[in-house]
Design goal:
This protein is α+β, with helices and mostly antiparallel strands. The chain has two domains: about 5-105 and about 210-410, Beta-lactamase (3-Layer(aba) Sandwich), CATH 3.40.710; about 110-195, no CATH class. Helices cover about 35% and strands about 15% of the residues. The chain contains 13 helices and ten strands. The protein has an eight-stranded antiparallel sheet. It has a two-stranded antiparallel ribbon with strand order 3-4. A hairpin with a 2-residue loop joins strand 7 and strand 8. The protein is globular. The two termini are about 30 Å apart. The relative contact order is 0.18.
């Protein structure tokens, strides 16, 4: 495709994305009439919406998507659409893996809260008391940062840092979204537990919750199961864009085989050592860590929906789950983002909607994997949409709006 044709294609796709977000209110209102036995509107996509999703995917330029829905606190519906790879046409299936991207953060936050419940981690104790990051700069603010600051995104640290690591504002003074801060907390958690992130997540969450397709690692089976990301527009593509996670995973697999230690069991030090050996002339970047608490989760839409069931109001919780006080802390607004209607709890973004408080998170890895999850803890509802393309955010926003009947402020800003 020539330059002018490419620009026209991108303009058309962007215009289509605007239509995706703006349209659909009529069918959303129509779907809101379908109710569960408890009288609340269900978030299960209507048959009309399911039939329309392939068309919406074409408009957005999204080759593959997966959707899962929670109702009354249980996973009740999941469906796969399209293909993992537009060149090979391998279909997306219910067990297909997606990069959760920044939707990883609430999952990690949940396990952090388990450690808090176990009194192995204090939310308000400076992280330097546990471990100082290896790239720390000469900044006295670093001595003040706590796990609470990390989970609510008020550390003052940048999203991703070049050397050295310093703050841009005082910790606790306002909202500053930071993946870099989550990596520091990952180091602290590994220090406290003596376990790599992937092993800890398996023991504390994935295993007990039945999230059997979730991992922070990479191996040949994951490589076969995972989607490829797509740029915009994908029509007529003869070559996919760079696939950073896949490419790094494939480069690091020989080290896992040589060390007889799966990547899913690696510590931060293991990851850095492998990356340095693979690229001796390059300084490893925390942003590119494969085992990464800020964006490294590989999972299915249904597994993520199972995780979201753990955030729902209910009278009793299993012994391995976080306490209800910890769950409430995750869902309590702490740091304002856009006035009082959108804020941050611990791990989750929170939005005051006409239907009540929503907990939500979106994700974008390398601009080619877009994800969204929205939940309503009081009514036990949630919807997860995973996509493998640059414009997946527009598709996800439209699907959530159609399925829930809610005009989320986040989709408008």
């Amino acid at each position: 495709m020539g330059t002018s044709e490419t620009m026209l294609g991108r303009r058309a796709l962007l215009a289509g994305s605007s239509i995706l977000i703006a349209g659909g209110s009529a069918s959303a209102r129509a779907f809101a009439g379908i109710r569960c036995p408890d009288g609340n509107p269900a978030w299960i996509p209507s048959e009309e919406l399911v039939r329309d999703i392939p068309r919406l995917m074409r408009i957005a330029g999204v080759p593959g998507a997966a959707i899962a829905v929670v109702d009354r606190g249980k996973l009740v519906w999941n469906r796969a659409f399209g293909v993992k790879n537009i060149l090979s046409h391998d279909p997306v299936r219910e067990e297909t893996l997606f990069e959760a991207a920044s939707m990883t953060k609430p999952v990690f936050a949940y396990v952090v809260m388990r450690l808090v419940d176990e009194k192995r981690l204090d939310l308000d104790k400076p992280l330097v008391s546990y471990r100082r990051p290896p790239n720390a700069g000469n900044d006295p603010n670093l001595d003040l940062i706590t796990a609470r600051h990390v989970l609510e995104h008020s550390t003052g640290l940048p999203n991703w840092a070049s050397e050295p690591l310093v703050t841009g504002r005082a910790p606790g003074s306002g909202y500053t979204y930071s993946g870099e801060a989550f990596i520091w907390l990952q180091l602290v958690v590994e220090t406290i537990t003596g376990m790599g992130l992937g092993s800890l997540m398996q023991a504390k969450l994935f295993g007990p919750a039945g999230m059997s397709h979730s991992s922070f690692g990479w191996d040949e089976e994951i490589a076969r199961s995972a989607v490829f990301g797509h740029s915009e527009p994908p029509e007529g593509e003869t070559k996919l864009p760079a696939q950073p996670t896949r490419e790094l995973g494939n480069r690091l697999l020989p080290f896992a085989l040589r060390w007889r230690k799966p990547i899913a069991d690696w510590t931060y030090e293991d990851s850095i050592a492998a990356m340095r050996e693979a690229h001796p002339d390059t300084t490893p970047s925390t942003h590119d860590l494969l085992v990464n608490s800020a964006g490294g989760l590989l999972t299915t839409a249904s597994d993520y929906a199972r995780f979201m069931t753990l955030m729902m109001d209910r009278p009793a919780r299993a012994a391995w789950e976080i306490s209800d006080a910890a769950r409430q802390a995750m869902l309590t607004p702490r740091i304002e983002i856009r006035g009082r209607d959108i804020s941050r709890g611990l791990g989750w973004e929170l939005e005051q909607s006409p239907e009540g408080l929503l907990f939500q998170h979106s994700g974008s890895n390398y601009g080619i994997f877009k994800t969204l999850g929205v939940g309503d803890a009081r009514n036990g509802r949630a919807i997860v949409v995973f996509t493998n393309a640059a414009n997946g955010n527009a598709l996800a926003a439209r699907i959530v709006r159609e399925a829930t009947g809610i005009d989320r402020l986040k989709s408008l800003i």
